[in-house]
């Protein structure tokens, strides 16, 4: 029988040697944990410092540097995404896939965008006698904005002025050089040059300097056309002497820098001054009223004799009529959404359709699955597409009626009402057609414009009927409009599970 241990005994517990063996492991674990916590704290500190200093001052930038690669040394994240605008990826109702071609001495490109004239022959009828009936292609990324203007066959069809450079190149530095330091004077001088001569003065497509101040990196407007256009618009609203670069809010500037080029415009007078026709407002009716007042016409239609107008790419005007603009959403919020790169929060300079980036472009506000959001957009675009086709049928039918009436001997006086109707309905249709969102920027406004175009075409046909000499046959055959659409053309394929558009729809719409 084991004797009980005396209270004063110094015999050690058998567990203590085992505990002593684990002490080094515990110490090592504590050291590792301490090191991990220290590393985490250092990492957090470094990220905070990165957030405070979102760029590296590798080079000194000033108002003479228009090469984006130089800016990219200080802003590598933004520059990397900017370079991705070479991507060619289409959505169902916009963009362009790469189309291979055999390079020539006149046009060295091996890849181009699809021809929209081949997709829909009715466009040739609408623009008969104008350079756009010679060459008109799907839109591509900003990386191509200069070369596509240089090599378009429209350059062959007509002598284009240096004014075109305003929205197809980085022009801030060339304007300043040409004007001896005066931006407006340089712009006015380049407007009057032949395009090939002006082309020699520019090097890059749109660049960092066109939208950012090199010292503060704040957004700024550098395009004289917009500076004058927004001043005229604000004056029409009762605000005189508006200076966009000192009076606009930061959020407004995130749309205004895009509105420098994505707008309707025309070339005024022999000096080819670029004018944004906003003196009466930016709705299509107000712009048309402006043109009616000053009598501007882009060309005389080759088949009908109407003094016609060619709408350009009025995304800024149409966006202003939509719910996103009314809600304070800027162009950059959807087309250049913020992204996280490490600790930095930057705008994505890979400018593209929000449908190619739904997570960051749409779901920050709209908490629904991507497929549902895509289907909502495409439903709007399908309905716009179908109505656009009806309007295009109406315009081409009116043009055919005027042509037959003219050939039947109807006088210019009797044709005047129908020609005026063609001028208006064609411009309204073109305004909705040339706008790159296929109706999404302002769905109800786009539908109103197309409905007005259809109704105006009808009034033109009634004017022909009322002014026709007895016995004149001017009515278009029932199949005339349908025959204008190239055989085999098809509506863009719908994704699985989405509603298909009307079977009567013609080829893909789009803008310049």
Short description, anyone?
The chain is built from 22 helices and eight strands. With 512 residues, it is mostly helical.
Structure commentary:
The longest helix is centred in the C-terminal third of the chain and has 38 residues, at 370-407. With 512 residues, the chain is mainly α. A hairpin with a 4-residue loop joins β3 (266-268) and β4. A two-stranded antiparallel ribbon has the order 1-2. It is elongated, with a radius of gyration of 31 Å. The protein has helices spanning 16-52, 68-74, 76-82, 116-119, 122-126, 145-151, 154-157, 172-178, 183-191, 195-199, 224-236, 244-247, 250-259, 284-294, 315-319, 323-326, 331-335, 358-361, 370-407, 412-434, 443-467, 480-483; strands spanning 99-100, 111-112, 266-268, 273-275, 299-300, 307-308, 338-341, 344-347.
Helix-strand layout with pairing:
Elements: H1 16-52, H2 68-74, H3 76-82, E1 99-100, E2 111-112, H4 116-119, H5 122-126, H6 145-151, H7 154-157, H8 172-178, H9 183-191, H10 195-199, H11 224-236, H12 244-247, H13 250-259, E3 266-268, E4 273-275, H14 284-294, E5 299-300, E6 307-308, H15 315-319, H16 323-326, H17 331-335, E7 338-341, E8 344-347, H18 358-361, H19 370-407, H20 412-434, H21 443-467, H22 480-483
Antiparallel strand pairs: 1-2, 3-4, 5-6, 7-8
Helix pairs in contact: 2-3, 8-9, 19-20, 19-21, 20-21
Rounded to the nearest angstrom, the radius of gyration is: 31 Å
Distance between the termini: 105 Å
Low-confidence runs: 5-10, 473-491, 494-512
Strand-residue proportion = under 5%
Overall pLDDT level? 88
**Beta-strand segment tally:** 8
Report the order of strands and helices.
HHHEEHHHHHHHHHHEEHEEHHHEEHHHHH
Biggest sheet architecture: 2 strands, antiparallel
| SS class | mainly alpha
Count up the helices: 22
Neighbour order of strands in the largest sheet = 1-2
The helical percent reads: 40-55%
* Tertiary shape: elongated
């Amino acid at each position: 029988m084991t004797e009980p241990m005396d209270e004063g005994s110094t015999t050690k517990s058998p567990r203590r040697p085992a505990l002593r063996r684990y002490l080094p492991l515990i110490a090592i674990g504590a050291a590792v944990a301490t090191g991990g916590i220290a590393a985490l704290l250092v990492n957090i500190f470094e990220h905070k410092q990165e957030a405070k200093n979102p760029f590296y001052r590798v080079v000194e930038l000033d108002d003479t540097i228009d090469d984006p690669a130089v800016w990219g040394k200080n802003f590598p994240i933004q520059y990397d995404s900017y370079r991705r605008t070479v991507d060619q990826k289409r959505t169902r109702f916009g963009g362009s896939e790469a189309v291979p071609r055999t390079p020539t001495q006149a046009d060295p490109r091996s890849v181009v965008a699809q021809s929209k004239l081949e997709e829909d022959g009715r466009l040739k009828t609408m623009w008969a006698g104008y350079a756009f009936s010679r060459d008109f292609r799907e839109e591509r990324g900003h990386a191509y904005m200069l070369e596509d203007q240089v090599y378009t066959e429209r350059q062959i069809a007509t002598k284009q002025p240096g004014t075109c450079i305003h929205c197809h190149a980085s022009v801030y530095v060339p304007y300043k050089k040409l004007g001896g330091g005066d931006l407006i004077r340089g712009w006015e001088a380049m407007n009057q040059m032949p395009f090939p001569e002006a082309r020699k003065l520019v090097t890059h497509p749109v660049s960092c300097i066109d939208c950012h101040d090199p010292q503060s990196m704040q957004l700024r407007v550098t395009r004289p056309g917009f500076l004058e256009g927004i001043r005229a618009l604000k004056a029409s609203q009762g605000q005189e002497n508006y200076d966009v670069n000192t009076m606009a809010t930061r959020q407004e500037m995130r749309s205004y820098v895009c509105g420098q080029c994505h707008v309707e415009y025309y070339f005024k007078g022999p000096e080819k001054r670029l004018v944004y026709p906003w003196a009466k407002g930016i709705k299509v009716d107000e712009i048309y009223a402006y043109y009616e007042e000053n009598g501007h016409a882009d060309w005389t239609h080759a088949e009908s004799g109407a003094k016609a107008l060619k709408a350009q790419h009025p995304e800024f005007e149409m966006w202003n009529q939509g719910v996103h603009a009314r809600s304070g959403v800027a162009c950059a919020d959807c087309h250049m959404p913020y992204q996280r790169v490490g600790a930095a929060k930057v705008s994505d300079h890979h400018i593209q359709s929000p449908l190619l980036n739904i997570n960051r472009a749409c779901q920050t506000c709209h908490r629904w699955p991507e497929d549902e959001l895509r289907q909502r957009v495409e439903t709007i675009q399908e309905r716009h597409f179908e109505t656009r086709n009806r309007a295009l049928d109406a315009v081409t039918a009116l043009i055919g009626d005027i042509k037959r009436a003219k050939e039947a001997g109807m006088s210019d006086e009797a044709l005047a009402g129908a020609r005026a109707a063609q001028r208006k309905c064609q411009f309204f249709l073109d305004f909705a057609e040339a706008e790159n969102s296929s109706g999404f920027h302002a769905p109800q406004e786009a539908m109103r414009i197309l409905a007005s175009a259809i109704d105006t075409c009808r009034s033109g046909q009634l004017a022909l009927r009322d002014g026709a000499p007895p016995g004149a046959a001017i009515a278009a055959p029932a199949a005339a409009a349908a025959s204008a659409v190239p055989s085999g053309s098809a509506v863009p394929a719908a994704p699985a599970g989405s509603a298909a558009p009307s079977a009567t729809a013609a080829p893909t719409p789009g803008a310049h």
